[in-house]
Amino acid sequence: MAELAPTLVHKDYHASKMGMWLFLFTEILLFGGLFLLYATYRAKFPQAFHAGGQTLDVFIGGLNTVVLITSSLTVALSITALRRGELARCLWLLAFTVACAGAFMVNKIIEWSAKFHHGLVPGSEHMAGLPQGQSIFYGLYFAMTGLHGVHIVIGASVLLWVMLLIKQGKVTGQDYVVLENAGLYWHIVDLVWIYLFPLFYLIS
Amino acid sequence: MDHTASTEDTRPFFAPQGKGGLSSWIFSTDHKRIGLLYLSLILLMFAAATVLGIILKLKLMTPGSTLLTPQQYNAMFTLHGVIMIFMVVIPSIPASFGNIFLPIQIGANDVSFPRLNNFSWWLYVLGALLALTSIFTGNGPPDTGWTFYVPFSERTTTNVSVAVIAVFVLGFSSILTGLNFITTIHRLRAPGMTWRKLPLFVWSLYATGWIQVLATPILGITALLIFSERVLHLGLFDPGKGGDPLLYQHLFWIYSHPAVYIMILPAMGVISEIIPVFSRKPIFGYNMIAFSSLAIAFAGSLVWAHHMFTSGMSDTAVLVFSFLTFVVAIPSAIKVFNWLSTMYRGSISLDPPLLFSLGFIFMFSIGGLTGLVLGSAGTNIHVHDTYFVVAHFHYVIFGGTGLGMFAAMHYWFPKIFGRMYDHGRAAWSFWLILLGMNVLYFPMFIMGLQGMPRRYYDYLPQYAPMQMVSTWGSWFLAAGLILMFYNLYRGSRYGPRATKNHWGGATLEWTLPSPLPHEAFHGDPEAPEPYDFKGVNPDG
Amino acid sequence: MTDTHSPTQSHDGGQDHGPLSYRFLTLIWAGLMCLTAITVAVAKVDLGDMNVIVALAVASAKASLVIFFFMHLKYENWAIKSMVLTAFVILAIAIGLTFVDVGYRY
Fold first, then answer.
1. What would the DSSP string read from start to end of B186-207?
2. What would the DSSP string read from start to end of B108-136?
3. Could you list the residue range(s) of the whole structural domain that residue C104 is in?
4. Are the CB atoms for A41 and A139 separated by under 8 Å?
5. How far apart are CA B279 and CA B301, in angstroms?
6. Ramachandran region, residue A123 (left: φ > 0; alpha: ψ -120 to 50; beta: rest)
7. Is residue C2 part of a domain?
8. I need a labelling partner for C75 at 20 to 30 A (CA). Which of A106, B121, B298, B382 fits?
9. Contacts of C12 in chain A (CB under 8 A)
10. pLDDT tens digits for B388-440?
11. Longest CA–CA separation in chain A, Å
12. pLDDT, tens digit, for every residue of C65-76?
């Protein structure tokens, strides 16, 4: 019964889910290292962090928070839709989720451009001239929101790929763990932002 | 499902499948083939890094500017460390013997994610190629030491950037292996294979998998941070901007200390398999050994800053981490005690696997005890960054994991290749290796206590005699290694055919043909008591 | 042959329960919106050291809603739940023990 170079692809729903969660732990720990730096530096430079936080736009940050949380809703809804056999609705919800990702990135680009415009570029003379701790704030800001942005792009790409799989009938209302796992990844991206937002934008 | 046995079923797993050829190997999702793919590259990397080590010892044989320039010397010990740690020891046992035997020992036909398994091997290949690239491009290989401490790693013009990307990719490979193993152990145990019936090798791989998944991402972010410091000048560790270089060290060691438990736990698992078989006696304290694997994994995540006692940390941290370091020694000691208790009043067969296992216990005990000298903050100040440290970690990593790996090779060899090697030659190679290791590394303890710093290009004349002795040791060791690999190679090609259960093991792999067939189990096997040898006898 | 190992309709939850309703998920979303509004509002008030604690507490409340409901953790088996806990504990230890150094320097 041995086939030509068989791949033992047994479908195990629980294994797929467990594997995805284990992978998410690596994302949590990856960002965790940066949060460790943030925590220690904030404790060391409360004033500088306060000053830096004031230059961030709470409105854009808050808008992005709303956008991401809503995108988490729509991806969760899309799973329900798929399981109920509502394919069109599922795909629209996923498309909306990806659109939210796009909106988030547009906001991010606007924000970053504004920062660059003010000379706040890593490695610039202006940054070097800032008081102690403030360039650390901006360094962490770019590092953390930058890494987060990379994950937004990855997550959105994964969701687009899953949309394709759904259209091809490879992910269905009976076999939907791939969509669930893509959703889990997206929620982690949202989760990271849930902590980034107050830590960078709401330092009063 | 129809499980009609056909002639294909009993052919060895390495016999050509389908169209055969290279692609049936490098794209294989068969855990046994992937295990051999890993093993071959790991041994290749081991050979390369060992040659680097031999050259380093050759340079150090006499004082003065001999053989290498200082720059070459720095690059060489950096490469030696990077290759050994990330490309040899970390993957060593899990990626090779873990891949081959984990599914079989739990009664499964593969891991949970076979394609991911193959992908993890390709990540290893990519990481190795990137590391190779860093040697031959730009300003040459990194000269920072494998620890890449800032600020030097930010400023050196050598190819640190490419090297840390290689480290990131290799870390990813390690993560995926751990993820695969954890899921496999949870989901694919045969009916009746309860957690309490798992072979201790499986327990060790489970604990190791958790460290791989939870600790390696910190290495990932650390590598990304070095890269972005060099390329983007974020300045996060720049004291001029308020940065703290010690935070780099914290991040680095938060991974790299648990990493040493990734290195040692699987080797301990191998020893736990071998000792009972060659004592014909059930393992003493199964529960405690299983528990201690988990305890080591957890406690090992609490002690990282014992690498930083002299760095300028707070006194409170020095106190706390020193105390925690003593705690983590306890579960390791429990294992050693249990192995020895297993052998007590057993029926001992001094075959090669047991020889290497006893060598492990001897070397690991010395290395472990000297770890207490290092973990104790007061004595640490005297020996930090000296040859004492170099001796310590070579005793535990090379004498520990290295001998554990060799023990695994000699234990599972007949099962993988279906042939047997020459026992006498294997024993000779063991003694030569053991002698070589001790002649090479023991003088380093003494030199370290006498104050010889590590990573130094040159040294004072007072250390010359010991350095020379140490270098001779490297040659005995090399000779022993060559003899060992030669013996195994000969055995794999021309050795007598091996029987199903040459050693009389009670775990599931010994119920299968030697060499292993393509597909291990048709239907679910019965889960045996892994260390119950009643009615189990060597058949060769 | 290995399909015998894959209990897709298993005894421990997982797929057996139905999908969360649109209404329920939207309620969770509404809760997240409220918490976001709260955290922005509180940030405008000066509570000294308590600001960061309140901010983190609210963020953690939001995170809990996302993890337990959007990510479905509430309905997963105990194995997954304890794994999630373990991951966060390890992160907490890493940050916490680092503060034993950073918090006690001269």
1. HH-PPTT--GGGS-HHHHHHHH
2. -SS-S-HHHHHHHHHHHHHHHHHHHHHHH
3. 76-106
4. no
5. 34
6. left
7. no
8. B298
9. 14
10. 999 999 999 999 999 999 999 999 999 999 999 999 999 999 999 999 999 99
11. 72
12. 999 999 999 999
Architecture of the domain spanning B26-511: Up-down Bundle (1.20)
Report whether the peptide linkage leading into residue B515 is cis, meaning its omega lies within 30 degrees of zero. yes
Q: B138 — alpha (psi -120 to 50), left (phi > 0) or beta?
A: left
Instruction: State the number of CA atoms in the 13 A half-sphere of B445 facing the CB.
Output: 17
The predicted structure's pLDDT at residue B353: 98
Domain boundaries, chain A: 49-201
Which amino acid is it at B354?
A: L
**Enclosing H/E stretch for B96:** none
- Tell me the pTM: 0.94
Fold that domain A49-201 belongs to in CATH: Four Helix Bundle (Hemerythrin (Met), subunit A) (1.20.120)
Where do the structural domains in chain B lie, given as residue ranges?
Answer: 26-511
| Complex ipTM | 0.94
- Sequence-separated (6 or more) residues with CB below 8 Å from residue B427: B350, B352, B355
Q: Are residues C61 and C38 in the same domain?
A: yes
Per DSSP, the three-state class of B496 is coil
Contact C40, C54 (CB under 8 A): no
CA distance B308 to B315: 11
Question: How far, in Å, CA of B216 to CA of B172, rounded?
Answer: 8
Distance from CA of C20 to the nearest CA of B (A): 26
Interface check for B468 against chain C (CB to CB < 8 A): the answer is: no
Among chain C residues, CA nearest to A181? C71
Q: Searching chain A, which residue's CA lies closest to the CA of residue C77?
A: A14
